[in-house]
TrEMBL record:
Compositionally biased residues, Basic residues: 154-168
Taxonomic source organism: Demequina litorisediminis
Pfam family, one: AraC_binding
Origin: domain of life: Bacteria
Swiss-Prot/TrEMBL keywords: DNA-binding
Name this polypeptide is given: AraC-type arabinose-binding/dimerisation domain-containing protein
Key word Transcription present: no
Length: 176
């Protein structure tokens, strides 16, 4: 079972696509752009199926609990301290464990240096789950990205223009 309304205390940011397109034309930002990022705590019922993959690469870090990812018909378990790395355009499915749903930090990435980044992780379509040596550092980096994107949604931020709806959401206070 998957849910459609989000999770208590979730953090979710989506950069408006015209802003992503603009960033991909600029000298520095065209190298690597975060298009979406967030955190889903104890994400019971979380799951996605993308029959054609995503336009962006997806990086998901399991901070607690467990889940699974399926790529090319093969299912892989995902536990705390592991990351899922999915290249763009790769069909996949993933979901939280019903018994111990994951707390998941994640981001979607595009850019000219994306292939090099994916290669450096050691992940591949045949090996989409990797163990992280220092998962707290990766989680901290994604947290910084999410925090920066949350700040950018304010009128004084770098990509938020007056009158544009915020692209980040929170479920706070937590709902039961």
């Amino acid at each position: 079972m998957t849910i459609s309304e989000g999770f208590a205390s979730e953090r979710l940011c989506v950069v408006p696509r015209p802003e992503v397109a603009l960033a991909l034309t600029r000298p520095v930002t065209r190298r690597l752009v975060v298009t979406d990022a967030g955190m889903f705590p104890e994400a019971r019922g979380h799951g996605r199926a993308r029959g054609h993959g995503a336009r962006e690469a997806i990086v998901m870090v399991c901070a607690r609990g467990a889940g699974w990812v399926q790529v090319e018909g093969r299912r892989y378990g995902v536990g705390a301290g592991e990351a899922v790395v999915l290249p763009p355009g790769v069909p996949h499915r993933y979901g939280a464990s019903p018994a111990a749903p994951w707390t998941l930090w994640w981001c979607h990435l595009r850019g000219a240096d994306l292939a090099e980044l994916l290669e450096a992780t050691g992940a591949s379509v045949e090996r989409p789950v990797i163990a992280l040596h220092r998962p707290e550092r990766v989680i901290g980096l994604i947290d910084e990205v999410v925090t920066a994107l949350e700040g950018a949604r304010r009128p004084h931020g770098s990509w938020r223009r007056p009158g544009r709806r915020g692209a980040c959401s929170h479920r706070w206070p937590p709902t039961a």
